[in-house]
Design goal:
It is built from five helices and nine strands. By secondary structure, it is of the alpha+beta class. A hairpin with a 3-residue loop joins β5 (83-91) and β6.
Length: 292
């Protein structure tokens, strides 16, 4: 479910971004109007045709047109009507300049200008087209369906290429940042593992030293107890021998010594087990010293 939602969000974002870029590119590159010039014959009379496509919401005023000086303005027709006035300044080469105004917004205005020959139509020029943000083309430059399709495909491909390039650049930066984070995490993990190994080594060293120290202390204690046990055994035998020599019964003497042992709880010393424990501790201490 989460993967499907992420995919849907990505598709929606891609659609919105592409739509906005297409709209922005189209809006920024589209002129306010497009003027198409050409020539058309009506019977034996040639006319220069001027087709003005006004894309804006306002009328176009002050569109200056250079045309042959022999043309009479009263013979010019326009649908829908426009205002055509002469400009006082003249142009060299038998040309004159007129100004077209009141071109209706969001409409196509067709103007027919009578000319002497077909070639006169090639001399028609909108002199302030760049100033008015007006595109110019001749009737021969009108694109076919194939040209329109190719032009649209090129623009779309360029937009997608820009999106893909920016997306790839951003993804590469994000990926580099993630790789850097992973590298830092790996370094931190390596340092932690190294510290853990050092800590383990120190713990093992302390453990061995503690075991060695404990064994040595135990050996010293057992050795001390062994000395005391030996002394206790000596006095036990001495008292027993004195009692027997004084005429006491051996069984009574034995019961007396056992009663003393039970009272003092010196069974370990009376049985002589301290000697075996002492030897075992000596062997353990030797093994610990060998490991160190």
């Amino acid at each position: 479910m989460r993967k499907a939602v992420d995919t849907l969000v990505g598709v929606v974002i891609g659609f919105v971004v592409t739509f906005l870029l297409n709209a922005a590119v189209s809006y920024s590159t589209q002129p306010n109007a497009l003027v198409t010039t050409g020539a058309v014959a009506v019977g034996s009379q040639w006319y220069a045709s001027l087709e003005v496509e006004n894309y804006s919401e306002r009328t176009i005023d002050g569109l200056r047109l250079v045309l042959p000086a022999s043309i009479r303005l009263q013979n010019v027709t326009a649908v829908p009507p426009v205002r055509i006035t002469s400009v006082a300044s003249t142009v060299a080469g038998g040309m004159t300049r007129v100004e077209i105004s009141a071109v209706e917004p969001r409409a196509i205005t067709r103007i027919l200008i009578p000319i002497a020959s077909r070639t006169d139509a090639d001399d028609l020029v909108v002199s302030n087209a760049a100033e008015k943000n007006v595109g110019m083309r001749t009737s021969d430059q009108i694109e076919t369906r194939l040209q329109n399709a190719v032009s649209y495909a090129v623009r779309t491909a360029l937009i997608y290429a820009v999106i893909a390039g920016i997306g790839s650049w951003l993804f590469a930066r994000w990926l580099d940042a993630k790789y850097a984070q992973i590298a830092e995490h790996r370094k931190a993990l390596a340092r932690a593992e190294e510290n853990i190994e050092k800590l383990h080594a120190e713990i093992n060293t302390v453990r061995r030293e503690a075991a060695s120290t404990a064994s040595r202390v135990k050996i010293l204690l057992v050795a001390r107890l062994a000395d005391l046990a030996k002394e206790l055994s000596f006095w036990r035998r001495t008292v027993r021998d004195l009692l027997i020599q004084s005429g006491a019964d051996k069984r009574d003497v034995r019961e007396l010594t056992d009663s003393i042992t039970r009272s003092l709880k010196t069974f370990w010393a009376s049985r002589g087990e301290y000697e075996a424990d002492l030897e075992a501790l000596k062997v353990a201490a030797a093994l610990i010293d060998k490991e160190k």
